[in-house]
Amino acid sequence: MSQVNITKQHPDVYKQLAALSSAAEAAAAAAGLDGKLIELVKIRVSQLNGCAFCTRLHTREAVELGESTDRLAVLPAWWESQYFSPLEASALGLAEEVTRLSVPARTDWDNDALSEEQVSAVSWLALVMGAWNRVAIRSGYRVAP
């Protein structure tokens, strides 16, 4: 029994993660982060973690918010493009650093575009998204066309 849907086995824990996720999103919005940027962070973390379910889910949500297909297409190599503002580039770099847990910590994302509140909010978004990715992968959420 290599794969068990952990969300069904312990629904109360799932609900707690959902509450934490909502709190992280509210903190990001309160810190002045745009909804599209919040989704970009979630997508990028999901890409890094190899979670097809969450990548598709948040890509669809980003499109609903008006995100362009060009920006979504270059997101895996965002640093090579000119599509992202300094604030967005900083948030994406920070999300990658939090997701990969670079030791020593990478700071190339730190261009002073993010306030301390925004650094905290993006960090929480990346941490929570990583947890969701692990839930989806561990539970065997499959993605079909």
UniProtKB/TrEMBL annotation:
Q: Which SUPFAM superfamilies match?
A: AhpD-like
Q: Which domain of life is it from?
A: Bacteria
Record-linked InterPro entries: AhpD-like, AhpD_core, CMD-like
What GO MF terms are annotated?
peroxiredoxin activity
Q: Which residue numbers delimit the Carboxymuconolactone decarboxylase-like domain?
A: 18-97
Listed A to Z, the keywords are: Oxidoreductase, Peroxidase
What is the name listed in the Swiss-Prot or TrEMBL entry for this protein? Alkylhydroperoxidase
User: What is the originating organism of this protein?
Assistant: Leucobacter komagatae
Q: What is the lineage of its organism?
A: Bacteria, Bacillati, Actinomycetota, Actinomycetes, Micrococcales
